[in-house]
Amino acid sequence: MKQSVNFYDFERAFRTMDRDNHFSYHGLRALFDYLEEMEEDTGEEIELDVIALCCEFSEYTSALEAADNYSWDLGLDDDADEEEKETAAREWLNDETIVVDVDGGGIIIQDF
């Protein structure tokens, strides 16, 4: 049996499972929108499993923070500025996994 879920239901499910601090409000919204878009693109419904989503996706304040979490080697000159590092980190993450932009800054990635 399947049930349609709106954002309010999605957010409440995280709260009910004591996972409301795993993603920011904007991060949760970005993840919800991504999952809805994926359902539309594939034509397949996704089961809402809060624990699985928390294990599968992580939110970071920047692409550089996410890449650093995976011990990414910048491969850039030492004099590269923060914008160059952020761009390189985002490119690397896009090659490795799913990257979802969060309104107001930050990203969510599918863990790998």
Q: Indicate the mean pLDDT.
A: 92
- Number-wise, the strands total 3
Unreliable residue stretches: none
Apparent shape: elongated
Number of domains: 1
- Taking strands numbered 1, 2, ... along the chain, how are they ordered across the largest sheet? 1-3-2
- List SSEs in N-to-C order: HHHEHHEE
Descriptive key words:
single chain; mainly alpha; three-stranded antiparallel β-sheet; 5 helices; 51% helix
Characterization of the model:
The protein has one domain (7-110). Helix 4 crosses helix 5 (82-96). The longest helix is centred in the first third of the chain and has 18 residues, at 25-42. 51% of the residues lie in helices and 10% in strands. It is elongated and about 55 Å long. The chain is mainly alpha-helical. A three-stranded antiparallel sheet has the order 1-3-2.
Short structural description:
The protein has 5 helices and 3 strands; from the N terminus they run αααβααββ.
Task: Record the SSE blueprint.
Elements (H helix, E strand, L loop, with lengths): L6 H10 L8 H18 L7 H7 E4 L2 H7 L12 H15 L2 E3 L5 E4 L2
Antiparallel strand pairs: 1-3, 2-3
